Amino acid sequence: MKHLFIFNPRSLSGRKRKALVTRISEKCKGLEYEIYFSASAEDAQDKTRKACQTGEELCVYAGGGDGTIRQIAEALYPYPNAVLSAIPVGTGNDFVRNFGGKKAFLKLEHITDGEEHTIDLIQVGDKICANMINIGFDESVVSRLDKLRSLPLMGRSVAYTIALVIQLFEFPKEQLHITYADGSTYEKPFLLTFIANGKYCGGGYKSASEAQLDDGLLDMMTVYPLSRLSFFSLVGGYKNGTLITDPNHAHLFRFCKTDTVTLEKDTPFNVCIDGEVFSTNQLNVKALPRALRFRAPKEE
Predict the structure, then answer these.
(1) Closest among 195, 188, 201, 101 to 142, alpha carbons compared
(2) Do 9 and 37 form a contact (C-beta atoms < 8 A)?
(3) Fewer CB within 10 Å: C terminus or N terminus of the chain?
(4) Does the model's pTM come out above 0.85?
(5) How far apart are CA 276 and CA 90, in angstroms?
(6) Which CATH class is domain 132-288?
(7) Per CATH, the architecture of 2-121+292-296 is what?
(8) Which residues, including other chains, have CB under 8 Å from residue 8's CB and lie 6 or more apart?
């Protein structure tokens, strides 16, 4: 098996890049491997597809955050000879939390002694999502965060705090026409909604605590409009994963497991897919059961 490491160069630079490349090279002694720093998302996907088209067994390590994992997963999806893995050097690194988290992957033991899983993916129109789709409050924070981080001397933690405070002040609502797999609909304002494959988003929020990466289903939660006071009372449960199963708060949201859902609006609305934001008028979402092989560290 060949090992291909594709890095988002924005996620790794300077001494950290040199040190990690050295560690990977040492770990890969005696193996066929390549370390590649992509010029863009498109370049990373092109590199992945060309490597897969040889037909040989291949493990591609997405070097970056959740966005990089999504990009590589999208390119790998049509190729059964390929395995996805990760070197999590991004910012959120939420997808790898489903398999032990960033520290476990950065030990690099999974390169030579990993454990392979077969995981679901989410088809979102012509895109592939590995972890989670967010609309509403969570998406708005990400969109504002990206703008703030372009400012000089604006670190991620400071930018995230500012973005969160601004969204709490503005407290925007969204309203879409949602059609579920059973034919039922929802067309009232909501604070946020997520459609999840994995459990985590937002840098460690276990919002989709009931999600399983191999059950062939999507976990969808829509939080109804709330007062700020009620919102603050829910944040702890939303973060630690107890909100969905708490019967005392069941009247504040709609939760379901489904294999398809459609969301639409007469005007464009923003969608965040694994940390990447785009606009659309209609979102057709479908579970892709056991669609991709994924290599992770062995459970300790």
Answers:
(1) 201
(2) yes
(3) C
(4) yes
(5) 13
(6) mainly beta
(7) 3-Layer(aba) Sandwich (3.40)
(8) 38, 44, 63, 64, 65, 67, 68, 90
